[in-house]
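Task: sequence design from structure.
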């Protein structure tokens, strides 16, 4: 059955792979972007996820065009990497407000319709950094760790209404973001990964679409790593 799916930050990288995977299944898929537009087959809405009014307007636009949002994938995120003592107030708060605050805003907006229908799926795209920690990424790791508490609170609040909330925690994925890593840092990550390689975005997308499926109807509050074993035990 075709559903309406909203993927924040779905215009590139992991978000785009997720959006395209849902579309290939026959779902109606909308993405948010910051001005780049939407690839063919996807409905795009320009939105700054740190703007509460913008989040509300984006959800309203998607629902007017495609119908009530049944699946939310909170993926939009940014980085401002620097060491703790050099990190500015803006570098910390902007990352947390985008990554964690944006996820909360869209969860809040889409939950209303899910509650009315007594069915919904929320998937939050976190990171192994949120569980494992990462030097130079205190802001990013804090925002991604916060997604776990957000998802588990939603799972407890809304579970009785047929709504699940889960977290996917990717590790090193072949994206533009990881391509910008210094060669020495990338090699360090690869040595620590039991599988010895980076993943492709489609491998994350497969886990996300499964969590949004009927087959995962009894899975909620879970954190699913897609990291090649990097964060084992965390």
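Answer:
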């Amino acid at each position: 059955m075709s559903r309406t799916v909203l993927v924040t930050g779905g215009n590139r990288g992991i978000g785009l792979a997720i959006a395209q995977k849902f579309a290939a299944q026959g779902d109606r898929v909308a993405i948010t972007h910051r001005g780049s537009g939407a690839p063919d087959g996807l409905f795009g809405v320009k939105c700054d996820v740190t703007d509460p009014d913008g989040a509300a307007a984006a959800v309203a636009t998607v629902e007017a065009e495609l119908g009530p949002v049944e699946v939310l994938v909170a993926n939009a995120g940014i980085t401002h990497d620097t060491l703790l003592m050099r990190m500015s107030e803006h570098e910390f708060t902007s990352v947390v407000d985008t990554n964690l605050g944006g996820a909360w805003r869209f969860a809040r907006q889409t939950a209303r319709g899910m509650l009315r229908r007594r069915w919904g799926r929320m998937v939050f795209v976190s990171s192994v950094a949120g569980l494992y920690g990462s030097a130079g990424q205190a802001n990013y790791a804090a925002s991604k760790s916060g997604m776990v508490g957000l998802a588990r609170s939603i799972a407890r609040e809304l579970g009785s209404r047929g709504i699940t909330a889960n977290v996917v925690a990717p590790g090193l994925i072949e994206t533009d973001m990881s391509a910008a890593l210094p060669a020495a840092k990338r090699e360090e990550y690869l040595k620590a990964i039991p599988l010895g390689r980076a993943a492709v975005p489609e491998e994350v997308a497969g886990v996300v679409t499964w969590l949004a499926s009927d087959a995962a109807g009894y899975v909620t509050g879970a954190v699913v790593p897609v990291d090649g074993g990097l964060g084992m035990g965390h």
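The chain has a mean pLDDT of 95.
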